[in-house]
Fold these 2 entries.
Entry 1:
Amino acid sequence: MSKPAASPESLPDDPEALKHMVEDLRGQLAWYQEQHRLAKAKRFAHSQAVPPEQQNLGRFDEAEQQVHREKASPVRAHKRKAKQGGGRAPLPDHLPRREIVHELDAHARQCACGCERHVIGEEVAPPACWCIRIVAASTAPGRIAGCSVTMG
């Protein structure tokens, strides 16, 4: 690509030479316009978009792809390590263990209708010491035909 003339005085007088220069400048302009279009497409295109002129590029490097396929070695299978148990280690056997169970008295076990409430579970308090387990019973109204109290 030649440089354009700097001033009108330096242009040739021959019309054929001028036509040649105009054609050369049109070719340069087309090249720059294409470069500008490609730069905009690259800058503002979606990350997954491939320009149409680059879609067929994979066809021309088949020899390289064949070499890479031949060099690739299969990956050996491996076993994962077993997960290590997390949390605290169990208490030693020589430590004494106690379980404190809080029983409800007869008045607390009595339902509003007069029947006895049944134990449906237990609540375990967070221990102050890992050797002691504190348990309290959870109760619900009795499931007898005459009980008028409903849960909820």
Entry 2:
Amino acid sequence: MKISVFGFTTTRRFAAIAILASFVFSNVFAVDALRSEKYNVVSTATAKYTTDLTQLGREGRLRADLSLEAETMRLIKVLGEGVRQPVVVNENKGVQQAIVEQAALRIAKGTVPANLANKTILKLETDVLFSNARTPAAIAEAVNALVKDAVASKGQTILFVDELTNLVGSTSVKNDLFAAIAEGKLIVIGASSFEDFEQRIDSQVEIAKYFDGILVHDRTNAAATASAVASADTKKDEGFKGDNISPDLREMMQQDPSGKKRVDVVLQAKDADNGALRSLLASGQARITDRIGRSETLVVNLPLSALNSLSSSGLDQLRFAGSSADRDRPHRRNDRSRRDAFAACDERPFGLHARRNWRWRCHCRFRHSI
């Protein structure tokens, strides 16, 4: 009898301990949940009117598009600089969103500068917002709630507004968006048509100084221009006869037999579909770092060891691109209109393969001369 009693008592003790442990752990999890809610609470407006593009990237619901590589790199560059808010300027909203999705996908994959790592790109669903909030006051209330949530994230949330000019500028609905940008509390990616950007943002000095327009050209016209530029280059550049690698690149290859040194090389837009180049881009050995002018001339950073394989893959010409400082030097305009300045971007770069300290005749980034 004693043994059975002892066993019964022992069983009760284990049961009591199990109940107590369960109580403790359940309370710990409850506290953690409350803490999580405290630091991740968002307004109804954010939940209702935004889509997390970065999360879509993590879930594999966004597809990489190498044809938008140059625009994506420029967008990431402006975001990484943290000086101005980038605005994707194109007439097609689908193109605007596709470029921002590429940036979100890069954040999801961790292939962005350190200061952009782990950030979240939230798209403001403007169509839903303007169809549900029917009065200016209701729109302002929703936008202000979104801005408050984004500001509370302390720079971790990037708000993508595809109709920026409806929320920023003298004719826009009054809200806290621009004030938060001006105070440096909010990071935004905007999108706009050329005309709206020019009239409502770029022409207003006090507003324009906070934004950096990224002009996305029509691809059909750009391809035709690129073909014309390539044809003109072939006729003009006698030094390339019999060799599609420029003399200065050949010299670099001789000086570095290992081929490990990385250089910036200029390619034409039509070369972006080259199989060998796409393979290098997909593997991460090469990356498009810039796009120049309306000809969509691409600047690709790659190791010298990759030049021979590209040379034999059918590319027309491989040229040294010079220093990034020269490429990024802003162009000073006098009294030409901004639209004329963009038209001037059809001009081809000069001294491209023979000089290492060349300048571009125009700078297609809506930047104001200082």
